[in-house]
Structure formats: C-alpha cells, structure tokens
C-alpha cells in the first residue's frame, strides 16, 4: 500500500482518494505514527502530507526518524516537502507574502513530471518556502513567486512538491501521483472486484460462525453492507429494517424488493404506530428528533431480542468518519455515528465495520458490483428522522400522507427531467401555512408545500439548486392538481449557511 502520513492538511483525504482512483490502495495514518505501525501496512511508498505547522516551530510534528533512514520512496507535499528539505540540511523560511491560489510553473522536469507537457497550473497554499537546498537534491520546478516549487533526489527516491498535486485546481497533478506510484512499484489492482473479494474474506475471518445483526436504513451504505454480508455469511446475517412510518412513499417495498431476491435475510417491521403515538402532540424539532432516536433503539432492541442472540453488530461506518476522529496517536476512536437513528454506545455487541476503509464512491462501486439497483445506489441522502423533520410542527398520519404524495411528485419529476443526479439533495416540506386559492370557480383554503433542492459537496455548506422554471412549473401544477390539500407551492432559494438544508 501507499501510506499517507497526515500532518493536518485539509487535503489529506484527497491524496488517498487520488491514489485509489489510480487503482493503488492507500491508507492515512497520523503523521507521528511509529515506524512499526507504518510497516504493518506493507508500504511501498510514503507520502508526507501538508499541514498548518511550520517545520521550524518548536513542537512541529515529525515523522518517525527511522522512516527517513529507510529506503522507502517518499513524496512530501507542502509541509511534507519542507520537512524533507529541512531534515536533509536545507533551509525553510517565511519569505515575503503568503502564496495562495493558482500559479503557473515557469519550468518543470524530473522524474515525477515525466509524460507531462504544456502549461502546468499548480495550486499553492503556503507561507513558508524552501530557500536553500540540501545536498543530493535538485530543484525541478519553479513558479514566479516560488523558485523552489518541486525538488527531487532521484537516487534516494525522495520527492517534494510545494504545491498540491491532489486538488482539482492542479489539473495535471494526477499524473505526478501516477509517476510516484511507478517509482514505488505499487500494484494497481485496487478494483471494485478486488475490494469485494477482500471484504468478504475479512468478514468471514472476523465473524467465523457467529451471528450478525444489521440495521438497514434504506440508504446506500447499509443496503450495500446487507448485500455484502449476505454474500459473505448468508443466513448468519439478520438485517432489520424498522419502518418508522416517516419514510417516503413505497420506500419499504423498494428496499425489500432490492435486498430479498439477492439473498439478504431481511426482517421488516412496521413500527409506525409506536413512533406516531410517541410523536403525538410534539412540535418542537429537537424533541421530535430525540423521541425518534429513543423509539428507534427500543424497536431495534425488541427485534434483536426476538431474533437473537447475536454476537456481532454490523455498521456501515465509512473511512471519512474514522479519519475525522482519529485521535492522533494510537487507535482511531470512532465517533458515535448516526447511520440510522443513532445506536447507543454501550453496546454488548462486537462491531463489524467492513467499510471502515472505504470512501463513499467506493461503496457505490461495490454496490454496483453486488447488484444494488441504481435507484438506491445513487440515492440522495435521507435523514434518520425522515419526513418528521419536514413536517413543521406536529406529525400526524394525515400530514405524512400529504407530504409523501408531494415528495413523490417532486422526486419523480426530478428523475423524469434528468435533474435528480444534478442536485445533491432534494426534499419537500409541509408547512402549517394555510392560504386562499381558487380552483375552477371555487375558493380553496389549503396548505403550502415548499420544495428545496441543493447542490453541495458534503452537506456542510449548500447552495439552492437553480432548477429550470419549466420544471418548477410542471411540478407545481402536478402537486396542486393531484394533492388536494395543497393549493400553493413555493421554492426555497436560501443557501446554507444561513439556512440549513432541512427545515427543522
Ligand atoms: P442540515 O439540515 O443540518 O442537514 O443542513 C445536513 C444533512 O444532514 C441531514 N440531516 C440528518 N441526518 N439525522 C440524520 O441522519 C438527522 O437528525 C439529520 N438532520 C439533518 C440532512 O438531510 C442533510 O443531508
């Protein structure tokens, strides 16, 4: 594998993703990881990431000195390059202004630039620079402001880049990473099929003949996990899908018909009565969430009891969740994730988390290979509390029924117009606002539905999607004509921040 030592750059994960896109398995470890643990990964090469520190600061994080004495190829990016240079006897200083943004290389060459031609735009983000070069190293690239933009010591297979080859703003950067893989002699066999085979093997090795419980939410992660576990351990798996009654129209049936034919031992439970009576009379958003979380655990425990005992609990934890909470040294401490309704932390089960080292797009590729239908595989995110946080105020069966029909018209419309995959998430909200309308010759007094669609990378920030007016017109007509309780449709044109994506 390629080991990426993380010194705190916001781009570290991107480096790992790029290598994987190139078919090479890569893992991220904290920057100060001891050599023994690095070697456990059977590294063929090591990347030192960027980071916020200055190499000359007291207490700046350093990799294990034994790494630098080893014969492993090393690529230092930004802080990583400065560290390589300084450690080999060069000088790193804060010179003049901080360079941030796109810069064109005025010259480039050397081993990692092999096969690159034409203009080379590099993304810079640094305030320190290498000002004198250590022995054995050569400058192989420069920009107007940064005379030392890339260095190499070919003999020792040590390379440094002041810019970030992993970001999209360095369009030809992927080629440099590919060349580094070549220098490392890294295999390029990290394919979805390879991932599936390895995951199946590791699940079998972990659980043996033990029984495994899995909560299915209907999203891509838990559904894919269900398929994987069914392949790996067949009937030792019991997958439980709690229908809390707050789902989209036809969602339970969709999940059942996707998973059962592929051999997933799936139990579905209609717990809508339990959830709705617990929610009766409650209109505070946070309280609704809490109640749903609590009832989910109750319902899940009940099923676990009924079909148990189970030795293992499977969870669709992804790599970003694990890295995010990696507490520096030692084992990563996993944050409590909320894949479904949020499970308690004091579980009596051992955890099975086969996707711990996968990114979301890798899970989607695995899903395709395992036969998960496109409609689930490419689905928008859907919150655990479901439609309850899209009905402002109290949740009732009647309101759920109205919102399900509105939502269905909106979402199927997006698919029909080829817009579904262009937005990150889309949802309908049932507001308590009633207003006057006219249909035929009659006065109406009905509810207002709000539609929201956003573009986003990760849901942390979002912009409202610029949906075409013709589409909005069609959908608005359909909703008002087919859902009689609604006589007005509005489109939410707020971004996040200041608004959130969900209305509650
Ligand atoms: P907000 O509304 O905070 O949503 O901008 C960001 C993303 O998180 C989802 N979301 C939730 N997911 N439980 C979940 O599992 C929740 O309580 C919850 N609240 C919001 C939301 O759908 C969006 O994708």
TrEMBL record:
Root EC class: ligase
Keywords carried by this UniProt record: ATP-binding, Glutamine amidotransferase, GMP biosynthesis, Ligase, Nucleotide-binding, Purine biosynthesis
Active-site residues from the entry: 78, 164, 166
Matching Pfam families: GATase, GMP_synt_C
Listed pathway(s): Purine metabolism; GMP biosynthesis; GMP from XMP (L-Gln route): step 1/1
Keyword ATP-binding listed: yes
Catalytic activity: XMP + L-glutamine + ATP + H2O = GMP + L-glutamate + AMP + diphosphate + 2 H(+)
Cited function: Catalyzes the synthesis of GMP from XMP.
Name listed for the protein in its UniProt record: GMP synthase [glutamine-hydrolyzing]
Encoding gene, per UniProt annotation: guaA
């Amino acid at each position: 594998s390629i080991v990426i030592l993380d010194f705190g750059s916001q781009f570290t994960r991107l480096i790992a993703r790029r290598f994987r896109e190139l078919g090479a398995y890569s893992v991220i470890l904290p920057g100060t990881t001891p050599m023994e643990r690095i070697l456990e990964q059977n590294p063929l090469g090591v990347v030192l990431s960027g980071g916020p520190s200055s190499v000359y600061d007291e207490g700046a994080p350093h990799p294990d000195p034994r790494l630098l004495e080893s014969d492993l190829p090393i690529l230092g990016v930004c802080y990583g390059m400065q560290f390589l240079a300084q450690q080999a006897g060069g000088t790193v200083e804060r010179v003049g202004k901080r360079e941030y943004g796109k810069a064109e290389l005025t010259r480039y060459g050397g081993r990692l630039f092999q096969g690159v031609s034409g203009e080379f735009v590099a993304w810079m983000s640094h305030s320190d620079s290498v000002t004198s070069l250590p022995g054995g190293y050569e400058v192989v690239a420069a920009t107007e402001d940064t005379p030392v933009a890339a260095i190499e010591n070919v003999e020792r297979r040590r390379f440094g880049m002041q810019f970030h080859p992993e970001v999209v703003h360095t369009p030809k950067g992927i080629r440099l990473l590919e060349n580094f893989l070549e220098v490392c002699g890294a295999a390029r066999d990290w394919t979805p099929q390879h991932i599936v085979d390895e995951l199946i093997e590791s699940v079998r090795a972990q659980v043996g003949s033990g029984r495994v419980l899995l909560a299915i939410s209907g999203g891509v992660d838990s559904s894919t996990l269900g398929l994987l576990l069914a392949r790996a351990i067949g009937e030792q798996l019991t997958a439980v899908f709690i229908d809390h009654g707050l789902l989209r129209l036809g969602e339970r049936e969709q999940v059942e018909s996707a998973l059962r034919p592929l051999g997933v031992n799936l139990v579905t439970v209609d717990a809508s009565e339990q959830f709705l009576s617990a929610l009766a009379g409650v209109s505070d958003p946070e309280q609704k969430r809490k109640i749903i979380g609590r009832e989910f655990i109750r319902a899940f425990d009940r099923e676990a009891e009924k079909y148990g005992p189970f030795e293992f609990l499977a969870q669709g934890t992804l790599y970003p969740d694990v890295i995010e909470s990696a507490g520096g040294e030692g084992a990563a401490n996993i944050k409590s994730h909320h894949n479904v309704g949020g499970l308690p932390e004091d579980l009596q089960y051992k955890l099975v988390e086969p996707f711990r080292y996968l990114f979301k797009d890798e899970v989607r590729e695995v899903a395709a290979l395992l036969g998960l239908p496109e409609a689930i595989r490419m689905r928008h995110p859907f919150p655990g509390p479901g439609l309850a946080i899209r009905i402002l105020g109290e949740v009732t069966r009647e309101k759920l029924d109205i919102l399900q029909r509105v939502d269905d018209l909106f979402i199927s419309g997006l698919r029909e117009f080829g817009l579904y995959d262009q937005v990150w998430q889309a949802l309908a909200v049932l507001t308590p606002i009633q207003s006057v309308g006219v249909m035929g010759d009659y006065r109406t007094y009905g509810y207002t539905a709000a539609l929201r669609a956003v573009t986003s990378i990760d849901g942390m920030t979002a912009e409202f999607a610029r949906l075409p007016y013709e589409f909005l017109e069609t959908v608005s007509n359909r909703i008002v004509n087919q859902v009689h309780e609604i006589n007005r449709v509005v489109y939410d044109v707020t971004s996040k921040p200041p608004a959130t994506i969900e209305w509650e």
